[in-house]
Design a protein that fits this description.
Length: 110
């Protein structure tokens, strides 16, 4: 499998008809560069489809996922980009509320 050290999410929607070269151009424009072993996620405007571009150190991989019902939990009130944990990424691609996983789910006050 491809090693992924960091997962980045672009909040702005992307036209998912884009191929590998267009997605790579978008990564460079939004994130400044495509770093080895980093994954970059993009969704369409309706948030029912997403693409992930991964730089494996040699080349790039582009994968797509579509939900037949519902939509991915995609941030709308944040501008720019976000970083995610692997657990949050796993929840996101299943269509679960990924923001509640990790530190956001820790109870500190009763």
């Amino acid at each position: 499998m491809i090693r992924v050290d960091a997962v980045w999410l672009c909040v702005e929607p992307m036209d998912l008809r884009a191929g590998t070269e267009s997605a790579l151009t978008r990564v460079v424009n939004v994130f400044g560069s495509a770093r080895p072993h980093h994954a970059y996620l993009f969704a369409n405007r309706r948030a029912n489809r997403l693409k992930v571009l991964v730089h494996d150190g040699i080349g790039v991989w582009l994968a797509a996922r579509r939900l037949n019902q519902g939509k991915f939990v995609w941030p709308r009130d944040v501008a720019g980009t976000l970083t995610m944990t692997h657990a949050q990424f796993d929840a996101l691609v299943l269509g679960l509320p990924w923001q509640r996983i990790g530190e956001a789910g820790v109870i500190t006050v009763l």
